[in-house]
Every structure is written in C-alpha cells, then in structure tokens.
Amino acid sequence: MIRSFVAVSLPQDVRQALERTALPFKRLGLNARFASPGSMHLTLKFLGDIEPGRVDSLAAQISGAACIHAPFRLTLGTLGVFPGRRRPRVLWRGMRGIVPLLELQRSVSSLLAQEGFEPDKRPYAPHLTLARLRSPRGSQALLEEVERFNEEYEESQAEAFEVTQVNLFQSILKPSGAEYRILSSAPLEGGP
Q1: pLDDT tens digits, 136-159
Q2: Which residues of 134-151 are buried (b: 16+ CB within 10 A; e: fewer)?
Q3: pTM
Q4: How far apart are CA 184 and CA 182, in angstroms?
Q5: N or C: which end of the chain has fewer CB within 10 A?
Q6: Which SS3 state, helix, strand or coil, does residue 10 take?
Q7: Is the dihedral of CA 53, 109, 121, 87 positive or negative?
Q8: How far apart are CA 138 and CA 89, in angstroms?
C-alpha cells in the first residue's frame, strides 16, 4: 500500500520564509515538533493508503482537474492555531489570494470522488503547518508571538509564489519524520 495525498509544492524561497517564520517559536521552548522546510507543502486532498496499481488512474483524474485551471499566485498570510486559542495543538500559516486554490481543490476532490474518495466533511481550510504541539507548555507565549506576528504582517511584503502544477505524493513514514516523494505531476493549463 502507498500512503498518499495531493498537494501543491512550495518553491525554495517560500520554504525558507516559513523557516524564518518558525524561528521565534523555536526559541520559546515549546514541547513541539516543527515541520522540516523541505517537507512543507499545501495539501489539497489526503487519500490515505492506496493500491500501487491505482496510481495511474488517480494521476489521470488529478491531471483532468488541473488542466482546466490556469496558474495562479498565492501569498503567505497571517498565523493561526488549531483547534483554537484555549488549547492550541497546531501552529499554521495561512494563505492570501485563495479563491483559485479553493476552486482547484474542489475540482480535485470532485474528480477523486469518482475514484471512491469521499469528499471531506469539513470545509477546506488552506494552511501550512509549521509545528505540532505535544503539550500546552508555553501556550501563552506562543499565542503572544502569533499576535505580534499578525500585528506586524503586511501583505505587500509577504512572500508570494506561482502555483503551476499539482502533485500526487507518496508519504513514507520514518522515525525521523515523514519523507515525501512525487508520484506524478499535473500542470495547470487552463485559462485564455
């Protein structure tokens, strides 16, 4: 079985910007696991375990969804926590300019439903996970740093990038953390 998901890869400069965003939080002494910059991506749909023989048909469906969308630009946004401020478990960075991303995600999800993958019950909330907290230790300091970052955030100075393709990834779980391998890529080819 292949553990898999559909996602947008991030360019190196955006991953470096996310690493810089995480630095002040790493200094807080949180009981957290921080995402490796090289593994950061923008998930569109988690598929779970699939049979290796299904990769080609899934790649075809993803390509069918991607080809009707034009490339678009996203900008890194403000910070937030899941599930909420009372007991934060995940530190994330949001995105700006997400309307085309939401449309792309709906197309991918719709075509994959034809392959038996149920649409997610919760609405799609695009975000980039920076850290997963193992305990509430340091939560107040974390929330204060999130507030400080968001107060200083200026969209005009935030990192932006072009989304030009969608990838089907394999997730290989290792003791050191997950490793991701691209199984197929589908370019965004729609538009005038």
Answers
A1: 889 999 999 999 999 999 988 899
A2: eeeebbeebeebbeeeee
A3: 0.91
A4: 6
A5: C
A6: coil
A7: positive
A8: 12
